């Protein structure tokens, strides 16, 4: 009988070799083989419908960014940058043991412990933050509980990579610190070596912590810690959608009814209003018969909970804030942020579509009533542009207005039309170019409306949106071939200059193809623009490459990727997860030639048709069948 542990180790080593081959293959040979690799990957996409094991990093210790400044070298707890001290699964981690000050960052985590009583190690929360005892991870169903059992992966393995000499102990504990599983082993290897163990998933349905501990006298370097996730029987297109939605759902607080901006922060501290609306729409979509990964009853409950929770926030001129936080148990605008027209537009249009999709007529009427209470006339700037919003005092109007060509301006203008207010169409720039060539700005409107795939110039900016979007798409795909032809992004065919967290998650950055020397890829654009690709399998082939490189995991896409291949940010952020989920759905609908449920609602709703006809007047928009962007008319 074959040894399963040995097979797993060989598979892991082969995977590592394949990654290195992709990264370090001679550039000329890489360019010659690239078409063949994509053909092989496309074949893999079509055949990949069996259950398979994927390694999900808990923490890659080589990726931690050390803190700088006074005290940076005085103890392990001070050698973590607090802005990036979270795991790849959106939780927290820390050190334990009397020898923790003997630990340091190297090519991993290094520790040299004295003989006797000096032991040390690290703990990692598996769900939520460590103090939250109610958040645990069920190894038999490791995705958020609202996802149906048939779509649930399980966790079957634990892997730790170590080198040096000494004894290591792996433990899985409950929230009460009860030991649920333990394994001890000797390390004696001058180079990093993976150690894998099969775990009893049925006994780990309330796991909270995954810890490792080095025993006294050990001299070790720990490189990474991973979970072996057994996927359900899903083809790649459904898996990409599922992983994107599960990533988004990890930011949702069922008790509060909000999505926090990042999975690794405390519930209630920094809630994203647009992401919360997108989650309601995504959940409604996931409950549709062609997807069937969430029950319609759960989707309706989430829709109602979100509506009640967001509805408790005090508005200003009818506007919702971009971020909210809980103060004395009640949601209010987060200090220093704004009451935002674009975020209000995303939230209300997403909520209205979700209500329509779920046949919740009472909710549909309530959303429309709220839209009509937005004081758009009071938000107009002198030239007729709609202001970006109000400062957090709820009175001071922001002097910036929506004039740039792109989806953000379009969504704000269409919400105003739903409210019965006509903004000045001529204020929208007729450039056919989003600001700085930023990716998401050209695509966000098409998460909701299929109209912007029309080849007919719109009635506002007089631009052929489909042509403009495809021009930007081509420039996105060719950017790194021109700026870094020998780099990893060009070899892989990666693209995505959009917006999101900076390289280390310490700042929000906006990238675009009009800017020189860009080095950070925002992979959400790959899914947002995916249906622009004539052959969807080309996108899935790229996603297959990304999965093998660790950029697409069971916990979803990483937040960003450095174009030179030196690293990536594994942050789970709510808004980009929303963009990815809806983009993944539109791409899957096109690939499978199925009716797009979001576009069906967009076309059937009188109110949404009225909004869209600001840009595309006439009966044609009402009668065209629902289709994904990029699909030819009449398909």
Overall description:
- Strands 1, 2, 3, 4, 5, 6, 7, 8 and 9 form a nine-stranded antiparallel sheet that branches. A three-stranded antiparallel sheet has the order 12-13-14. A three-stranded antiparallel sheet has the order 19-22-23, with no helix packed on it.
- 33% of the residues lie in helices and 19% in strands.
- Mean pLDDT is 89; it is low at 1-48, 65-83 and 619-635.
- The protein has 635 residues and is of the alpha+beta class.
- The N and C termini lie far apart (52 Å).
- The chain has three domains: 24-49 and 234-249 and 436-629, Glycosyltransferase (Alpha/alpha barrel); 54-230, Sandwich (Jelly Rolls), CATH 2.60.120.430; 251-431, Glycosyltransferase, CATH 1.50.10.
């Amino acid at each position: 009988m074959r040894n399963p542990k040995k097979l797993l180790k060989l598979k892991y080593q082969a995977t590592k070799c394949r990654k290195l081959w992709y990264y370090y293959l001679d550039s000329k040979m890489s360019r010659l083989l690239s078409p063949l690799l994509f053909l092989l990957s496309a074949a893999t996409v079509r055949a990949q419908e069996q259950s398979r094991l994927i390694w999900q990093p808990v923490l890659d210790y080589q990726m931690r960014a050390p803190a700088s400044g006074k005290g940076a070298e005085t103890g392990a707890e001070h050698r973590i940058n607090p802005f990036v001290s979270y795991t790849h699964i959106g939780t927290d981690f820390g050190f334990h043991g009397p020898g923790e000050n003997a630990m340091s960052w190297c090519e991993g985590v290094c520790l040299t412990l004295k003989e006797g009583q000096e032991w040390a190690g690290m703990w990692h929360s598996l769900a939520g933050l460590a103090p939250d005892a109610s958040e645990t991870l069920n190894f038999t169903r490791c995705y958020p509980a609202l996802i149906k059992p048939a779509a649930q992966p399980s966790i079957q393995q634990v892997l730790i990579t170590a080198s040096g000499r000494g004894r290591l102990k792996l433990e899985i504990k409950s929230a009460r610190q009860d030991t649920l599983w333990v394994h001890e082993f000797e390390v004696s290897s001058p180079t990093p070596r993976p150690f894998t163990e099969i775990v009893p998933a049925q006994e780990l349905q309330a796991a909270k912590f995954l810890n490792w501990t080095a025993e006294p006298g050990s001299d070790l370097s720990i490189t990474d810690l991973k979970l072996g996730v057994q996927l359900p029987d899903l083809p790649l297109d459904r898996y990409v959608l599922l992983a994107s939605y599960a990533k988004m759902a990890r930011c949702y607080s069922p008790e509060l009814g909000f999505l926090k901006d990042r999975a690794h922060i405390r519930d209630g501290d920094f809630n994203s209003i647009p992401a919360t609306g997108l989650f309601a729409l995504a959940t409604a979509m996931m409950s549709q018969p062609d997807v069937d990964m969430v029950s319609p009853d759960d989707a309706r409950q989430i829709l109602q909970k979100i509506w009640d929770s967001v509805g408790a926030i005090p508005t200003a001129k009818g506007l919702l804030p971009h971020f909210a936080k809980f103060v004395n148990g009640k949601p209010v605008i987060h200090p220093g942020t704004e009451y935002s027209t674009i975020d209000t537009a995303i939230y209300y249009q997403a909520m209205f579509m979700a209500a329509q999709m779920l046949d919740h007529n009472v909710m549909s009427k309530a959303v429309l009533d709220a839209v009509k209470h937005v004081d758009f006339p009071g938000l107009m700037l002198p030239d007729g542009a709609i202001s970006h919003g109000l400062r957090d005092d709820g009175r001071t109007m922001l002097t910036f207005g929506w004039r740039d060509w792109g989806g953000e301006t379009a969504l704000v203008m269409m919400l105003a039309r739903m409210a019965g207010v006509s903004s000045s169409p001529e204020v929208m720039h007729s450039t056919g170019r989003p600001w700085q060539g930023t990716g998401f700005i050209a695509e966000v409107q098409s998460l909701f409306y299929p109209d912007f795939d029309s080849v007919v110039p719109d009635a506002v900016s007089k631009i052929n949106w489909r042509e403009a979007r495809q021009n930007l798409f081509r420039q996105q795909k060719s950017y790194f071939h021109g700026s870094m032809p020998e780099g990893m992004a060009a070899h892989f065919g990666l693209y995505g200059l959009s917006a999101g967290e900076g390289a280390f998650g310490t700042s929000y950055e906006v990238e675009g193809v009009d800017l020189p020397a860009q080095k950070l890829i925002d992979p959400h654009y790959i899914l947002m623009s995916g249906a622009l690709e004539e052959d969807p399998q080309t996108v899935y082939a790229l996603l297959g490459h990304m999965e093998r490189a660790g950029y697409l995991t069971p916990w979803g896409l990483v937040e960003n990727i450095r174009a030179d291949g030196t690293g990536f940010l594994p942050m789970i952020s709510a808004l980009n997860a929303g963009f990815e989920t809806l983009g993944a759905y539109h791409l899957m609908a096109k690939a499978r030639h199925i009716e797009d449920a979001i576009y069906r609602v967009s076309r059937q709703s009188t109110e949404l048709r009225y909004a869209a006809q600001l840009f595309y007047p006439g009966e044609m928009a009402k009668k065209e069948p629902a289709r994904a962007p990029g699909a030819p008319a009449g398909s």
